[in-house]
């Protein structure tokens, strides 16, 4: 919150009222929503007579919110089954059970009073009132500054925004800058920022005041994100946790694995390796005391491993991108002094090994050679998956994604390197072999030759096809890790679409979804695109990234979390469609955005990167960057960069500006006046060093880039994909022909449909209606994909439908045995079930399962897991399923996942686990379900407020039966 915001709120809240805990509810209450990162910044004060109030300054937007306690044990919404758009000065009766968030539409920044009358705690009443804006004094932050610069940025709607930069004393060793903008900011506050350069961090001196200032802004925001304690309402009772760490942003006060790891990799580890190490270490955890490891769980006795944060379906292994930790750890290991590096390297090897070994058991598909799990960072299911996935998270869990598999590749290669370093050659060979095989599988299974890019993700089980969906992070990571060869890298960079303001994180966009991952640019993803472009020599893509990163930081006065991709706005206020407004959450000084900007300057502009032996200097300065950003300079410098305790100044001597496009080769590198190679060893560095890089010839390089554009307010087929269709019906005739009904899914004319059988395309460019398959097999499963004829953009696949419904055995069947008794039907699910099964000692078996013909089978558990909401928690079911033959021999075994599932007051659907694949001869079999583990078994989650936290691990669910289906 800015100083001005604090001043306004202080005036609004200066009433001396008691906190909510003193009222009839008996606990603190908060207004928690998108405007505060769903945190606890906005406490409700008890005013007496059962009334609680909070006055909040809110910026424009369609803001989701709830009334909730610090630990979410109290969660109040207006309607537990549907979101409500709240009108001001209107009374709403609230439901005291969990449900979808409500919304407040705000057109202009203003203070609002949220009042809750809980005189009847079972039926509280909500009222929202707009308050008058208090006066704010006008301040000129540039007054008295000796040097100023003005930069104009064209906008998407034909206007322009103006950003002014100034410096108090341009000759000062450490400058103080002011920056102001005409653009309406995302969050309330003044239209300016004042910040200073800091001792111990590098400074830029380029002759371009705006460039130098924006680098100083990123460094200042890195210092703001450097904290001595962190907190999150879901941990430690909301109380602060001591940690010399990086917090995630202005609205996110905790350390999250993927945010930290990507931020560290992009730039933070080089500049503050000790704090990076502390933060990475915070994201490691051993098993809780008293937890008994199931025999199938791998790794050391303490179970030290990387934490998968709370999320989809109850966290790991629905999501497996915890292994992105390796990106940050690798950079920290390069940057730490030898004495500090040694213990961290040993701890990193142990944690990575335990993580890798258990991911191999729980989330590796041997047939595909790929790891399962949600896309990395794209963790809002309906933003980047099919709309139906929220009702079938098992299908998301069994899908494979490019970004996450690249993360597994990085974890394997780093672990192999550390194992070799520690003399464990056998482990190094194993992990190198796994990495080599994974690289091959990514290129075999996920590369789409017709698109010239990798598929972002496959469909889940019963389909498995790579989909024509693309994401910039996955494509870029494939390039920077070397998974993509030079030919593939050139193709990706030339073909991934860029809008007028830069590259979106996914393509095509999804209809009916607000801006967040969908329809958005994220600076950290842009920075990985820049790294990829520099590696492959694509000047056009690099220039687009430079423009996106510099413009975003300039007009927003901060390195924002994300921006709408066609307009570059921190909030696209669509009054005609309030439900599509976004980004729905957006934080200033977002950690990975800060790391992205710092890395852009240090690694790309000045070319500094580290390896185990030293540093490499290879600036990637394009003709456009030299011409437009450094046009008046003969040289630019990065001063007082500290690497392993030694100071380094980098000076880049520039050639004359050229009207042609491309990038400049490095002609010579000098260290303290002596010529050296671009690779400089640590032993060559002294206490103070000057590295002079002279740029030479302009190389054309690669300049292909795909540009697209559309109206930001319209769901244009040019940049959006169709809505996913459906298999409306499926029937098998006596002649074995399958008739398939294609449901259009609400798509209009100009849409055609493609049919996949068992993950293979079997028919294309069909109209909606009935299609017949004369080559069907008894175990065939089908999915349909929609495609816009003009743009070629495609939808997600429909839910798969299989010809054979399989064998279903309900828990009431006499063959079912469990130490937890079968209960009769209940009102909500109306079926016999085993309630709350899943304690470590629980057993569940099904005997005398008859298989009439040999073949490939899929075994699933029918269940419901209501331990938490589908987007939250650490209590996804993770169990071990074994199939044994009549002689008691295990013929198939493995982990099955039972993620959180939706709960509705009426007609809550039962769901199925991920399938266990089994090749079975004809015969009789026994199914045995036993314990594995989930993230609630880790000590780091012992203070978590919901299921799996303070009351002990949670790996339980209700079982309704099992299903066995024959596959082709």
TrEMBL record:
Domain Mannosylglycerate hydrolase MGH1-like glycoside hydrolase per the UniProt entry, residue ranges: 255-551
Cross-referenced SUPFAM superfamilies: E set domains (SSF81296), Six-hairpin glycosidases (SSF48208)
Transmembrane residue ranges: none
Database matches in InterPro entries: 6-hairpin_glycosidase_sf, 6hp_glycosidase-like_sf, Ig-like_fold, Ig_E-set, MGH1-like_GH
Signal peptide from the UniProt entry: 1-20
Keywords, in A-Z order: Signal
Signal keyword on record: yes
Source organism superkingdom: Bacteria
Record Pfam families: MGH1-like_GH (PF22422)
BP GO terms, sorted: carbohydrate metabolic process
Protein name: Esterase
Native source organism of the sequence: Massilia polaris
Lineage, top ranks: Bacteria, Pseudomonadati, Pseudomonadota, Betaproteobacteria, Burkholderiales
